[in-house]
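Handout for the seminar on molecular recognition.
Each group receives one record of this type.
Step one: identify the two inputs.
Step two: read the structure output and locate the region that could contact nickel (II) ion.
Step three: write two sentences on what you found, then compare them with the reference statements printed after the record.
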Amino acid sequence: MIRPIVKFGDPVLARKAEPVAEVTGEIRQLVDDMIETMYAAPGVGLAAPQIGVPLRICVIDISGGRRGGQVITLINPEFVERTGMQLEEEGCLSVPGYNATVARPERAVVRGLDREGQPVTIEGTGLLARALQHELDHLDGTLFLNRLRGLPRDLIIRKIRKQQRSGAW
Ligand code: NI
């Protein structure tokens, strides 16, 4: 089932999500809904808080669903390693219409549980490393806007506030 994606301004996006106690059928259904919602958007990653669920779950497919079986599900993920630095444009399904250049480590290793509740370690460089960090940030209540400094950040937030006031957000 495709779920509505919440946008910047919703408090669920600003709070720290709770760990998943047990990977049940209900959690697997939530994961399947997240994957369906991500592909429909379309996007390359989605975190549970983005559909209003404050749990530590994210899904990533940097192929955007073009290659079958590429989807990564991470439950209770945590960083094992982060190295290097990359500067690339980034956007977010919860901040539609805005992109900005964000500094991120070039390589990331993340450990968590998969859809079946089995331990999994994912290593990514480039876009995958960026997606891993973007989605894990969501689980701690951080948006890419929070990673921007000064003027670029203020400019985007000012434009969003204007859209919110006119009901266009
Ligand atoms: Ni996002």
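Reference statements: The first helix runs from residue 25 to 40. Strands lie at 45-47, 57-60, 72-83, 86-90, 100-104, 107-113, 119-125.
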